[in-house]
Design a protein that fits this description.
Helix content is about 60%, strand content about 0%. The protein is mainly alpha-helical. α2 packs parallel to α5. The longest helix is centred in the N-terminal third of the chain and has 28 residues. The protein is elongated, with a radius of gyration of 25 Å. The relative contact order is 0.12.
């Protein structure tokens, strides 16, 4: 709404922004964010540590973001731009001409569905009894046993 309001107040040259096109572009952005969230969900089901899941998700997202631009510059790697999620987010034609990129919307939607299904399957197979929150018996330290004041437990 801020962009539309600024467009109306300052009246820049060109065709004024249309609300329906901006909403469709916002929907495309929402799909991109949901795809990244689905990726994060898959990664979090594959690892038991929150920090590792966060680092891997941020790393993959950054590689896709930077790769979306860099892969397009070098011909041998240009095909890799279609592997990134950011290639499927193109709001420019939607805002300018009202073109709806149905193939990109379908691709992001399909990724979300497949990633969430994979996360569901992975989570169901996960052994939650062995999570890091389960209390386990401490290991005995053979070197410390029998010494005065030593508990014999390792940390």
């Amino acid at each position: 709404t801020g962009t539309i309001l600024a467009d109306r107040i300052f009246n820049p040259p060109g065709v004024p922004l249309q609300i329906d096109r901006m909403l469709l572009a916002a929907f495309q952005a929402w799909l991109l964010f949901m795809a990244i969230a689905a990726l994060a969900t898959v990664v979090s089901t594959l690892t038991s540590e929150r920090s590792r899941a966060l680092a891997v998700t941020i790393g993959i997202t950054l590689v896709m973001y930077v790769g979306n631009f860099l892969f397009a510059l070098w011909e041998p790697l240009r095909f890799l731009t279609r592997v990134t999620l950011f290639w499927y987010f193109a709001p420019g034609p939607t805002i300018q001409r009202g073109d709806v990129p149905w193939a990109n919307i379908a691709a992001l939607s399909a990724f979300i569905i497949v990633a969430l299904a994979a996360a569901f399957v992975t989570f169901r197979r996960r052994d939650l009894a062995r999570s890091r929150w389960t209390r386990r018996p401490a290991n005995r330290c053979r070197r410390c046993e029998g010494q005065p004041g030593a508990t014999g437990l390792t940390w």
